Amino acid sequence: MTSFTPKIKVNTDRTTYSETELTTKYTYENSIVSINKETNEYNVENIETDLTFKVDLKVPRVGVLLVGLGGNNGTTFTAATIANREKIKFQTREGEIESNYFGSVTQSSTIKLGIDNNGKDIYVPFNSILPMINPNDFIISGWDINEMNLYDAMNRSKVLEYDLREKLKPFMEKIKPMKSIYYPDFIALNQDDRANNCFNREGGKGKVELGNKWEHVETIRNDIKNFKIKNNLDKVIVLWTANTERYSELIEGVNDTSENLIKSIKEGHNEISASTIFAVASILENSPYINGSPQNTFVPGLIEMAIEKDIFIGGDDFKSGQTKFKSVMAQYLVDAGIKIKSIASYNHLGNNDGYNLSSPRQFRSKEISKASVVDDVIESNGILYKKDESIDHCIVIKYLEAVGDSKVAMDEYYSELMLGGHNRISIHNICEDSLLATPLIIDLIIMTEFLTRIRVMKEDKYEKMYTILSLLSYWLKAPLTRTGYEPINALNKQRMAIDNFLRILIGLKPLDELRFEERL
Ligand code: NAI
Ligand code: DG6
Questions:
Q1: What values do phi and psi take at 272, rounded to 5?
Q2: Is any atom of ligand 2 closer than 6 Å to the C-beta of 269?
Q3: For residue 168, what are the contacts with CB-CB under 8 A and spacing of at least 6?
Q4: pTM above 0.95?
Q5: For 52-80, how does the pLDDT look when each residue is reduced to its tens digit (9 = 90+)?
Q6: Which residues fall within 8 angstroms of residue 318, CB to CB, at 6 or more apart?
Q7: Which residue among 189, 458, 510, 511 is the one 20 to 30 A from 155 at the CA level?
């Protein structure tokens, strides 16, 4: 553990720093609106709530366990942390590149602190506000149904430049994924050849054992425990970046409560997915669990279990390129009073993720998470859209082996302008899919760890934040939210919540951009 000396000193009596803790008082303000449907009048009550937060300033030793370690994201993530830690420089056809973390909010973005005497905005690095783990210090391991070492797997992924891969070889070739569990019904049939590193499959590619899934939970729990002890870790975070699974059916008596879920796991029920097994094992080992894929790992019984055990969970599905752009574009158009009528989104890609998604049930999971992303923006504007009116939104993903990890995304936004006019915006984006997704994994882990060090005073007792980490929504396509609350998809709102939360913890006010120095 390392101690922290604040570099940003806010002159306020709202914060108290000790060597190991920061205590902050903050008055939360909001407006509660009630609508009289007959008169169409809005009654608004301003509310204030006094809160006290405590931040543990000690950065712990953190272990990261990835499910899907040998995949494109898993290998790129591991490679990125090693390349940065070792300060590797490498040649590309454009010249020498120094390793960096571009695309990571925590590592490569800034937050506005305030203005200088001339009214100029002053920004500081996101991760300088409060102590956060440096990704170079992650201790990484994980599971994969495929046995390949990470050097070979990184070459198979075809994401990184040749020179970088060769410089990483001595580090990557030593890493081998732990044996995993394989439930063939949940991922595409075309993945079967890959599944040669599974503790529930006889001799490499033999018969798959699905009888007692509780034994699978116990094996994964032991893996987590041993990893923690062997590496002398304070905390372990588990993240699913394995293949997209099909949805699990939600069945009363099977996965609806924590008790039924455990019973069904013990009975080896067909509707218990591998990802749910990993999540149960993580929760029972007090390790936060994040779902980077779209499937409904978090069945109601699992959410109940996480709440009972008070272990953080976050999901679903990394929000990387096309969807992130969509959540910005949709907000821009609708906030400008322009009525989006349709969005057509096409993707083609040639990596293993695309191969798995060429199977209809796995594609369906992705289609659901990609489609939900404009819902809150549409609902926010009752002038453009009637109640329950939606837009035409089509999602197409095609596997095209030749393009590899260089995903092509094409989107057409078709909107209605005033007096019958129309506005068509077409987007064409090509990028390495895994180089967009990996920085998100870094951020999700750093933010999850950071949030485990926050306490809020409730009835004279400090408590953790709520189990479902909706503050992670910025990085996720279909944010998991607390029962009774609808997901916020709009990217700017998601980012505002994170920035303002960090600001209030160090005694600043949330940003409002009123800039009265200039305007009054
Ligand atoms: P990938 O197919 O290259 O990697 C997945 C890995 O998971 C493979 O190595 C596979 O062998 C392994 N695997 C499958 N089932 C497993 C199990 N039960 N236990 C352990 N390992 C298992 O895919 P990629 O590109 O790394 O993506 C990973 C996931 O992240 C996918 O579900 C994808 O949909 C999701 N995602 C990816 C984004 C991106 O931009 N790359 C963005 C949003 C989500
Ligand atoms: C094709 O859509 C494959 C997917 O796994 C995507 O790469 C991934 O979901 C990222 O999608 P988006 O919409 O966030 O760029």
A1: -90, 120
A2: no
A3: 79, 82, 83, 88, 151, 154, 160
A4: yes
A5: 999 999 999 999 999 999 999 999 999 99
A6: 241, 292, 437, 440, 441, 444, 475, 476, 477
A7: 189
The CA 188 to ligand 2 mean position distance, Å, reads 17
Question: Is 317 part of the annotated catalytic residue set?
Answer: yes
* Contact call for residues 497 and 510 (beta carbons, < 8 A): no
pLDDT, residue 212, reads 86
Give the number of other Cβ atoms within 10 Å of residue 95's Cβ. Answer: 6
Token digits of residue 389: 């009116």
Token pair 């990085």 is found at: 475
C-alpha closest to that of 1 among 53, 62, 86? 62
- Which of these, 488, 188, 110, lies nearest to 359 by C-alpha position? 188
Would you tell me how many other CB atoms lie within 10 Å of the CB of residue 279?
A: 30
Strand spans (E) along 38-148: 41-56, 62-67, 89-92, 95-98, 110-115, 121-125, 139-143
ipTM for the predicted complex: 0.98
Which atom of ligand 1 is found nearest the CA of 187? 15
Task: Choose the residue to mutate in 76, 157, 323 for probing ligand 2, maximizing ligand atoms within 8 Å of C-beta.
Answer: 323
Q: Kindly give the parts of the chain with pLDDT less than 50.
A: 1
How many whole angstroms separate alpha carbon 349 and alpha carbon 88?
29
